[in-house]
Amino acid sequence: MSYFTAVGDDAISSRMLGAMRESGVNTQQVRIVPNRSVELYLITLNNGERSFTYWRGQSAARLLAQDKQALAHAMTQSDLIYFSGVTLAILNPEPPFLRLFHWRVQPKADIHK
Q1: Report field, pTM of the whole predicted structure over 0.85
Q2: Are the C-beta atoms of 103 and 109 separated by less than 8 Å?
Q3: Which residues, given as ranges, of the chain have pLDDT below 50?
Q4: Which uninterrupted H or E stretch holds 83?
């Protein structure tokens, strides 16, 4: 199994990348972005009610679609692609990204328009 994402060059990102590798995940397509980190989530409990806090602003994964060639390569080399709601929330829905997604879902589409 391979994982296509971007992480930062900080200690948390390094630990996460190491854990993926130790678990047997192929990380060759993980991009390391300087001066960025991974997204962080905190779930707190107050009288049985969960509250969620997100830190996404400096997420390296926000830049995932900037390298269109790497994104196209990852998508064309994969049998299965999973986009979580979080992934879709942090990616900029620019036309190039949407064209790549549409092309992967419908391979006859032209991604170079």
Answers
A1: no
A2: yes
A3: 108-113
A4: none
